[in-house]
Write a structure and sequence with these properties.
The complex is a heterodimer. In chain A, 0% of the residues lie in helices and 51% in strands. Chain A has strands at residues 4-7, 10-13, 19-25, 31-37, 44-50, 53-56, 64-67, 73-78, 87-94, 104-105, 109-113. In chain A, the strands form 2 sheets. In chain A, strands 2, 4, 5, 6, 9, 10 and 11 form a 7-stranded mixed β-sheet that branches. Chain A has a 4-stranded antiparallel β-sheet with strand order 1-3-8-7, with no helix packed on it. In chain A, strand 4 (31-37) and strand 5 form a beta hairpin. In chain B, the strands form 2 sheets. In chain B, strands 2, 4, 5, 9, 10 and 11 form a 6-stranded mixed β-sheet that branches. The chains are: A mainly beta, B mainly beta. The A-B interface holds A 4, 6, 31, 40-43, 45, 48, 55, 88, 90, 92, 94, 96-108, 110 and B 2, 30-31, 33, 35, 40-45, 48, 50, 88, 90, 92-93, 95, 97-105, 107.
Chain lengths: 114, 112
């Protein structure tokens, strides 16, 4: 089945230790998104790739970076995780024509920072 | 910036009852989406309604859109315990019509 896969599902890291979360998709969608979601809050968009074009949200900290080496894969790098970065990280994809289309989400990676 | 706001924040009902959630937004939109999120999981798309549509159905789900009032509602009929989840509305952000912005969601609990 076509899907969005996130690895790992649970990630524990130490304060200040770089961590990378991965996302892959078999849907061949042109847009990939990374969201941060804290408990009982709305998913907050960090950045997205429209094809190869990287789009950073204005309030996304520099501590967060992303890579999209090809259509199928996208990575979220947190260079120096702080306690406040503990959250669920959601990857999503969509096939966009500029009119708005449904997003397909992965199951998320729960990040714990010790 | 957060575009849509869901109401109520929490809803608790008995199995078999209907559940209604509302979403209000601030600026003109060309589409509005509803998503469901089970605890600790990713979001699942439910329905997309475009600005020229007033009502849409999908199984036990009914979504309405009133662009004059800048509001939408999601009705779940004959609810089941498995409907227990958080429900989010998503509207296009100002940065681009294809980028959805999510509200805080309505937490629905359906008691068996």
């Amino acid at each position: 089945d076509a899907m969005v896969i996130q690895n790992p599902r649970y990630q524990v890291t130490q304060f200040g230790k770089p961590v990378t979360l991965s996302c892959s998709q078999t849907l061949n969608h042109n847009v990939m998104y990374w969201y941060q979601q804290k408990s009982s809050q709305a998913p907050k968009l960090l950045f997205h790739y429209y094809d190869k074009d990287f789009n950073n949200e204005a309030d996304t900290p520099d501590n967060f970076q992303s890579r999209r080496p090809n259509t199928s894969f996208c990575f979220l790098d947190i260079r120096s995780p702080g306690l406040g970065d503990a959250a669920m990280y959601l990857c999503a994809t969509s096939r966009e024509s500029g009119l708005g289309n449904e997003q397909f989400f992965g199951p998320g990676t729960r990040l714990t920072v010790l | 910036s957060q575009q849509g706001e869901e109401d109520p924040q929490a809803l608790s009902i008995q199995e078999g009852e209907n559940a209604t959630m509302n979403c209000s937004y601030k600026t003109s939109i060309n589409n509005l989406q509803w998503y469901r999120q089970n605890s600790g999981r990713g979001l699942v798309h439910l329905i997309l309604i475009r600005s020229n549509e007033r009502e849409k159905h999908s199984g036990r789900l009914r979504v309405t859109l009133d662009t004059s009032k800048k509001s939408s509602s999601l009705l779940i009929t004959a609810s089941r315990a498995a409907d227990t989840a958080s429900y989010f509305c998503a509207t296009p952000s100002s940065g681009g019509s294809y980028i959805p912005t999510f509200g805080r969601g309505t937490s629905l609990i359906v008691h068996p």
